[in-house]
């Protein structure tokens, strides 16, 4: 069956509209040929059904004509009552009269200056988010290196941070891979691109985004567990956290891929207005909602513990240190997504792009800053090892000087 037109990008919806019309017309032509073949040679000469690139002209006998209206595409053609006619002659179909460009008046489209301004805008956006993701990737790799190199920093909390950082690295890499696959060749029609590489890049991107949100959920869950079960070993929960952070996104993406393959396997799967987009969108909203509840509960528990006279000053400082980063990230990561989720995908496109691409590209850097570079424990460990290294260097220099003197 011909692909159904979805509520995709307006430019792509035009392409898909004509693809649908062409597929329907070709199906009619195919059935007519099968019918004529079964009935034997044609009894009456005439013009066969034809697709002219815009409209489908049904078969008529010689001497008759056919009339069609302008294509019914909103925001492209003005609603015109004019009809385009073609006559069936002995030589075949005549040319459309009046021509499409006269009968079907185009809606007022932006000038060349507007087109150039849009092109410049998207180029600027790409430069900004490329710089943002590059900065984030550098900071995240450095943070993972710091947590991995220093033995005193090896604990469940920092292990969860490393997984969280890795999800950001995957997200940044997925953006670069998606750009390389979708926009490497300007001659490619992105509306009709339907290659395995393209779909794989989109599937990997969706997985990295889901993993990103679910590892943020794990950060909130770990903080809540730490406040609830103070004297319980947190190592017993690490595999559950890994299952939630990596397993749930994998299961979700697999369901989405199978669903798209079975019911909506057209294009590059990057149409966010498709009904099946909710297979991805609903789990993300669920993670954000759960994080919001954790945010409220952790805030309540923190206030109770700080006000409690039984808890010493050192414990209060520890609770504040553990809480401030996660409590800052939970609303920061989820609020804009919830706001945009309430509106259709074509509403507020510029603002959505700015938040998700430009500001979102620096989230990895912010996470590395909060969880690693501004972490007092990390700073103390770096200073301690830096002091040991300086003492070792001074000792080596002294030994060399002494050897030279004695020699």
Keywords:
two-stranded antiparallel sheet, single chain, mainly alpha, 11 helices, disordered N terminus, 5% strand, Hormone receptor fold
Task: Give an overview of the whole structure.
The chain is mainly α and 407 residues long. The protein has 2 domains: 10-103, Irregular (Hormone receptor fold), CATH 4.10.1240.10; 130-380, Rhopdopsin 7-helix transmembrane proteins. The chain has 11 helices and 7 strands. The strands form 3 sheets. Strands 5-6-7 form a 3-stranded antiparallel beta sheet, with no helix packed on it.
In short, what is this structure?
The chain is mostly helical and 407 residues long. The chain has 11 helices and 7 strands.
What is the topological layout?
Layout: H1 10-39, E1 46-47, E2 50-51, E3 56-57, E4 60-61, E5 65-69, E6 83-89, E7 92-93, H2 100-103, H3 112-149, H4 156-182, H5 196-228, H6 238-263, H7 278-307, H8 313-341, H9 349-361, H10 363-373, H11 376-406
Antiparallel strand pairs: 1-4, 2-3, 5-6, 6-7
Organism: Glareola pratincola
Keywords: Cell membrane, Disulfide bond, G-protein coupled receptor, Glycoprotein, Membrane, Receptor, Transducer, Transmembrane, Transmembrane helix
Pfam families: 7tm_2 (PF00002), HRM (PF02793)
